[in-house]
Amino acid sequence: MPPTLGTNVLGRKVLYLPSFFTYAKYIVQVDGKIGLFRGLSPRLMSNALSTVTRGSMKKVFPPDEIEQVSNKDDMKTSLKKVVKETSYEMMMQCVSRMLAHPLHVISMRCMVQFVGREAKYSGVLSSIGKIFKEEGLLGFFVGLIPHLLGDVVFLWGCNLLAHFINAYLVDDSVSDTPGGLGNDQNPGSQVGWNKDLSFFPCTIAVSMLTYPFLLVGDLMAVNNCGLQAGLPPYSPVFKSWIHCWKYLSVQGQLFRGSSLLFRRVSSGSCFALE
Questions:
Q1: Where residue 46 sits, what CATH number does that domain have?
Q2: CA-to-CA dists, residue 175 to 98, 114, 164, 172, 268, angstroms
Q3: Which of UniProt's keywords are assigned here (predicted)?
Q4: Total of domains in the chain
Q5: Which of 30-39, 72-81, 89-98 has the lowest mean pLDDT?
Q6: In 3D, which of 122, 113, 121 has the Cα closest to residue 228?
């Protein structure tokens, strides 16, 4: 859908892309409310498989006893605990991502069929057969690498950032007060470093930085798969996820879709293909 002319907070005229609600309204007009739930089944299966995988891994490879980080730890000791726990989380996340990614690919392709009004991917089993026949085993893992990198950067970024905020910016006297976080009279009430209140804003900040990995991974999942949305003129055919990243970077679109409402057209954006 084409951008519309609007004004920013300074009163200057700028081009805005349609918002989430504009697209949602259009999808309902074309497909009805059911159109908003394209790809839901494989997405739910992907999430369920990821959860089961993580639970099974915890049983097969139980984590070593990791003590909670407290304000009594010195910087070196607390950092070791953070690195140890984050490494374990990264292992579980990477394995669960690899196993669930084929279902994510199917989900993405079911969704983008809306663009070309296609019905190539309908059920999960039939989609698995089509992908294996046309692209082989590797077809189930297109876009996996940027997703893995995004997960790794997100985990380490959130955990380390939260740790250093707690270590240098959080007043220890607050957590030592009775009834506060980390009450010494009630050790069971101590909140670990990754459960502290500072962890939430860290996830928001780091998720903004890792969004391009998610975008590139999803674009590669549908690129050149036989659907119109993954072919010119809607999208160039990318040789690799790095090629896709560079293309979006030049176009100023690495963060496209990251905002639900005010989506400005970047100055470098154009729809001409290379």
A1: 1.50.40.10
A2: 39, 52, 16, 5, 48
A3: Apoptosis, Membrane, Methylation, Mitochondrion, Mitochondrion outer membrane, Repeat, Transmembrane, Transmembrane helix, Transport
A4: 1
A5: 72-81
A6: 113
